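Lay summary. Proteins are chains of building blocks that fold into shapes, and those shapes determine what they do. In this project we predict the shape from the chain. Here is one chain we studied, written as its sequence of building blocks.
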Amino acid sequence: MKFKARVYVETTIVSYLVARPSRDLVVAAHQQVTREWWEQRRSEFELFVSALVMQEAGCGDEQAAQRRLNELAAIPVLALTEEATALAHHLVEDGPLPKTAVEDALHIALATVHGMDYLLTWNCRRLANAEMEHAVASRCLSRGYDPPIICTPEELMGG
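And here is the predicted shape, written in a compact code that computers can read:
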């Protein structure tokens, strides 16, 4: 039996997956890559979301929210633990993430505490951000956790 890497699917992924095609060329390209990854690659991984992802996916336009939730329905939901909450706090308290990025810190913490191999996101401002990667990893490692690789679907398309 082949080992499947574990992927935490952050909210931006499902949002790009079901959104109407954007007129912004960069966003439209990200949407297309997301659809291709979802159709061609997701079966090669073990996917997970969290209650936070489900909550965020359920917000906004009712029809769009229902499409997002439908896509996530069969994906196991990771529990919000005290360990994840403490790690998220560590990431924003004198850490690499600003205090306004509590949800982003929680996504990282949940993926880390639950031993995910990857955190898949289009949030390149605070999550898939090369300038923050070392500081985030250092914070996780200082608490005894091996952080996931934080990447976009484009980076996880395979060889």
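What the prediction tells us: The first helix runs from residue 11 to 18.
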